[in-house]
C-alpha cells in the first residue's frame, strides 16, 4: 500500500477531489461532527470529513487557523498525524469546513485491532496508547491551553506505530472555549443548547484535558469491546498506572480509584451517541453483589 507519509495535494487535485465527492455514498458510522467517508484519488485512499455549515466566515477562518496550529502542536508533542488538509467551501449561502486526509485501512483502525487481537495483543496496544498519553503530557508546549482525545476511535496502527487522525474539533484552546465550539459546530447544537447546561459538556470534554479521565476513556472502551476480558484489562491498566514514573502519587490514587471496575459511559455521552446514531458497545454491567 502507499506509504502514509504522503505528499501534499496540489490545489488542482483538491478541486478534483471536491468535485467528485458529491457522488460518494459510503460513509462511516462512527463519527459525531461529520460522517467521514473514504474516496479514491487515483490509487490514493483519502478520508473526507464534511462539517456543519455556518454563516460566519470569520468564525470559520479562525477554526481553520486553530486547526492548523493544533495539528502542529500535536506533532510537536510527538503525535503522528497523517497528511491533513482543512478548507472551507460555500454550501448554499453558508460556509462549510472540509477535511481531506490520508486514509488508513479498516483493519488498521485501533478499535478493530482491539477486537481482533488476543489478550496479550490488547495489552500491548493499551500500552502504546498509555505511553502516548504520557508522552504528550511530557512533550507538549506547556505555555498553551490544549486538549487531546486519545480514544480508540481516533487511532490506527500503521506499521506497528500509532497514528492519530481526529483533528476536529481543534483543541488549541481551554475547555470552556472548546465546549462552546462543540455546541456551535454540532449538527445537534440547537437541541443540545436547549437541554444541556454548558457545564455538563465538561463530562465529555474532561477526558480531553485530564490524565485520569483519559485513562478511564481508553480503559472503558476496551472493556466495552472485550467484556469477557474486562477484569484482566482493568488489572493490567492499574498496574501500568501504578508503575509509571510519569504519574504523580495523587494521580495514581485517582486513576486507581476510577479503575476499580469497568469505567462507565456518562449519560450525556450515551445521549450524544444516540443523537449521532453512533454505533458503540453498551456499558459493561457491574455485578451488584460484589
Ligand atoms: N484518516 C482516516 N483513516 C481511516 N479511517 C478514518 C480516518 N478518519 C476517520 N476515520 C473513520 O471515521 C471515524 C470518525 O472520524 P473522526 O475523525 O474521529 O471524527 P469524529 O470527530 O466524528 O470522531 C473514525 O473512528 C474512523 O472509523
Ligand atoms: Mg473521533
Describe this structure in words.
With 290 residues, this protein is α+β, with helices and mostly antiparallel strands. It has two domains: 25-102, Phosphorylase Kinase, domain 1 (2-Layer Sandwich); 106-275, no CATH class. The protein has helices spanning 11-21, 57-76, 110-116, 119-139, 175-185, 189-195, 202-209, 211-225, 230-243, 249-258, 267-275, and strands spanning 37-41, 44-50, 84-91, 94-102, 155-158, 161-164. A hairpin with a 2-residue loop joins β3 and β4 (94-102). The mean pLDDT is 89. Residues 28, 30-34, 36, 47, 49, 82, 101, 103-104, 109, 153-154, 165-166, 168 line the site of adenosine-5'-diphosphate.
Question: How would you sum up this structure in a few lines?
Answer:
With 290 residues, this protein is α+β, with helices and mostly antiparallel strands.
Order of strands across the widest beta sheet? 1-2-4-3
How many structural domains are formed by the residues? 2
Note the run of SSEs as H and E: HEEHEEHHEEHHHHHHH
Shape: globular
Distinct ligands, ions and cofactors found in the model: adenosine-5'-diphosphate, magnesium ion
Question: Can you summarize the main beta sheet?
Answer: 4 strands, antiparallel
How far is the N terminus from the C terminus?
49 Å
Amino acid at each position: 500500500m502507499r506509504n502514509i507519509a504522503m505528499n501534499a495535494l496540489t490545489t488542482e487535485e483538491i478541486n478534483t477531489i471536491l468535485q467528485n465527492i458529491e457522488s460518494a455514498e459510503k460513509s462511516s458510522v462512527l463519527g459525531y461532527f461529520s460522517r467521514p467517508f473514504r474516496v479514491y484519488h487515483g490509487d490514493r485512499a483519502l478520508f473526507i470529513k464534511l462539517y456543519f455549515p455556518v454563516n460566519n466566515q470569520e468564525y470559520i477562518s479562525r477554526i481553520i487557523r486553530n486547526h492548523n496550529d493544533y495539528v502542529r502542536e500535536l506533532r510537536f508533542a510527538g503525535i503522528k498525524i497523517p497528511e491533513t488538509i482543512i478548507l472551507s467551501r460555500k454550501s448554499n449561502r453558508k460556509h462549510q469546513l472540509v477535511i481531506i486526509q490520508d486514509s488508513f485501512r479498516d483493519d488498521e483502525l485501533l478499535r478493530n485491532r482491539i477486537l481482533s487481537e488476543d489478550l496479550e495483543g490488547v495489552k500491548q496496544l493499551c500500552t502504546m496508547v498509555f505511553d502516548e498519553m504520557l508522552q504528550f503530557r511530557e512533550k507538549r508546549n506547556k505555555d498553551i491551553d490544549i486538549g487531546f482525545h486519545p480514544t480508540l476511535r481516533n487511532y490506527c496502527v500503521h506499521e506497528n506505530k500509532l497514528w492519530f487522525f481526529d483533528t476536529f474539533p481543534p483543541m488549541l484552546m481551554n475547555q470552556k472555549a472548546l465546549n462552546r465550539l462543540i455546541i456551535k459546530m454540532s449538527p445537534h447544537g440547537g437541541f443540545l443548547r436547549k437541554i444541556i447546561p454548558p457545564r455538563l459538556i465538561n463530562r465529555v470534554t474532561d477526558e480531553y484535558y485530564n490524565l485520569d479521565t483519559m485513562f478511564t476513556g481508553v480503559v472503558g472502551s476496551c472493556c466495552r469491546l472485550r467484556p469477557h476480558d474486562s477484569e484482566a484489562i482493568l488489572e493490567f491498566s492499574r498496574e501500568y498506572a501504578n508503575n509509571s514514573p510519569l504519574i504523580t502519587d495523587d494521580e495514581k490514587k485517582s486513576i486507581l480509584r476510577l479503575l476499580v471496575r469497568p469505567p462507565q459511559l456518562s449519560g450525556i455521552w450515551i445521549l450524544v451517541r444516540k443523537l449521532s446514531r453512533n454505533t458503540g458497545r453498551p456499558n459493561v454491567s457491574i455485578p451488584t453483589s460484589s
